[in-house]
Amino acid sequence: NEMTYSVYYPTGFLNLDFANRFIQEVNGKLVFETGIADGSINMIISASGVGKTTICTQIASNIIRRFKTSTIFYEQAEVGTNIQRIKNLSGFASDQEFSDRFIIRDAGITIESIFDRVKMVHDIKVNNQDEYLYDTGLIDMRGDPVFKFEPTIFIIDSVKMVLSKKNAESDETNNMAAAVNAKANSEYYTKMVPMCREANIILLLINHITTDINTGFLPKKAELAYLKQGEHIAGGKSLIYIQNNIFRLDIKSKLKAEEGLGISGSIVNIDIVKSRSNKSGRSNCFLVFDQELGYDSDLSLLMLLKENKILE
């Protein structure tokens, strides 16, 4: 297919969208683009307990909410979040809407089965275009309207816990097993790239930052710019190359219920470690994380205004 203009979907968090913004010319007009691109592959990384699953659930729900056929496929290999928590974070009004729009799998997950599921969604959409295409409102350089498939989102939770079929059926836990997994990730995620682009399937990959144990030797060079020395992310180096965005989450400060904003949680800094639409390494974005309700867009904007002395 010929290349078309990318469409960007707001995440629901204005701080994050504008930190990852850019301007593109569409049919002679400058358009301010914010959010996550159609058919893109994105990775959210952090240490444990910072809210990776929470923000992915909220972003995915915010993106698909206005589309009638859009669905979230949640591959929960870690099985760390219960279904009621996911429903609360999604913000869907009823149990029926949640069960229709949020399909959760928590067993039998391998990289091969994820690939099969992505291919299934791709084939259904491409073979039934009249049902899934929508007019984006954009006009291309020839003056023709730009149509896209309504977005489908896959949340992979997490990259580290999703094994290849060979490893899932084996008792091996050594370096050889890690190499097998990295090779499978490289093969299958690379195959997903053109399918995601064509059928507007957005991947949100959750991944962990691990740190080498210092044994007195010099730490290894960071495997990606804006990671610290000795830090690694699981899945193999090839997986890094195909990402449109990599967002890093770090706790900036703790929040107590009896102080300040009146909530238990934290201020979470977001570094754009990799971006294909903006400069990498931008770190002027933070969000307010409420342990009970998830990330709060309004409080995040309030704190942004206060930090920039626009509000006293």
Number of strands: 16
Order of helices and strands: EHEEEEHEHHEHHEEEHHEEHEEEEH
What is the quaternary state of this protein?
A: single chain
End-to-end separation: 52 Å
Percent helix: 25-40%
Q: Main sheet, how many strands, which sense, barrel?
A: 10 strands, mixed
Beta-strand residue fraction: 25-35%
Report the structural category.
Answer: alpha/beta
The whole-number mean of residue pLDDT values reads 89
What is Rg? 20 Å
Q: Helical segment tally?
A: 10
Low-confidence blocks of residues: none
Shape: globular
Describe this structure in words.
- The protein is α/β, with parallel strands linked by helices and about 300 residues long.
- Helix content is about 30%, strand content about 30%.
- It is built from ten helices and 16 strands.
- It has helices at about 15-20, 50-65, 85-90, 95-100, 110-125, 130, 165-170, 175-200, 235-240, 295-305, and strands at about 10, 20-25, 30-35, 35, 40-45, 70-75, 100-105, 135-140, 145-150, 150-155, 200-210, 230-235, 245-255, 265-275, 280-290, 295.
- A hairpin with a 3-residue loop joins strand 15 (about 280-290) and strand 16.
- Helix 5 runs parallel beside helix 8 (about 175-200).
- The protein is globular.
- The mean pLDDT is about 90.
